């Protein structure tokens, strides 16, 4: 009797294990769900973009015939951009042949035949150079290449400059020369 009970128990246990093995389980590999790539490459024609400062005031306006964004590098290439840097008084307006906006560092680099001007009570102040850089968070415009500043009757040349937009100061550096008429 004991032997038959052990034998029946073993058969029931074996049947339970086999039945459990036969039932569907998580043997199917669950596919990995991936989110779509949200980085976008895009190209805009005849664009205009307005950037605001931390207080919500307009700080930088850029427009031009072509803007192309590279998602990998987060760099925006601009062709023949026109731009305007807002200040408390008159804005600085300008144009260049090319521009590069690095979204990671919020830096606008203007390249080739850069011209920047500002109208004031003593006439138009014009700056020409081959390259300028605008740091959006610091609200500065700088050049580490030769620049020429002209105002009616005066011409300044320098090896570089720094414009503080908030304090509206222009600092010239490296071999500054002035020619007045």
Topology:
Blueprint (H helix, E strand, L loop, with lengths): L1 H21 L19 E11 L5 E13 L4 E5 L2 E4 L6 E4 L2 E5 L4 E14 L2 E13 L4 E4 L3 E5 L2 E5 L1 E5 L4 E5 L3 E4 L1
Antiparallel strand pairs: 1-2, 2-3, 2-4, 3-6, 4-5, 5-7, 6-7, 7-8, 8-9, 8-10, 9-12, 10-11, 11-14, 12-13
Distance between the termini: 127 Å
Q: What percent strand? A: over 45%
Number of helices: 1
- The total strand number stands at 14
From N to C, what is the helix and strand string? HEEEEEEEEEEEEEE
- Strand line-up across the major sheet: 2-3-6-7-5-4
Overall pLDDT confidence: 83
Major beta-sheet overview? 6 strands, antiparallel, barrel
Helix content: 10-25%
Derived from helix and strand composition plus strand pairing, the structural class reads mainly beta
Round the Cα radius of gyration to an integer and report it. Answer: 33 Å
Spans with pLDDT under 50 lasting ≥5 residues? none
Q: Assign an overall shape.
A: rod-shaped
Task: Report what the structure shows.
With 181 residues, the protein is mainly beta. Strands 2-3-6-7-5-4 form a 6-stranded antiparallel barrel. The longest helix has 21 residues. It starts with a helix and ends with a strand.
For this entry, give a set of tags.
12% helix; single chain; 181 residues; 6-stranded antiparallel beta barrel; mainly beta; 54% strand
Summarize the structure.
With 181 residues, the protein is mainly β. Helices cover 12% and strands 54% of the residues. It has 1 helix and 14 strands, in the order H-E-E-E-E-E-E-E-E-E-E-E-E-E-E.
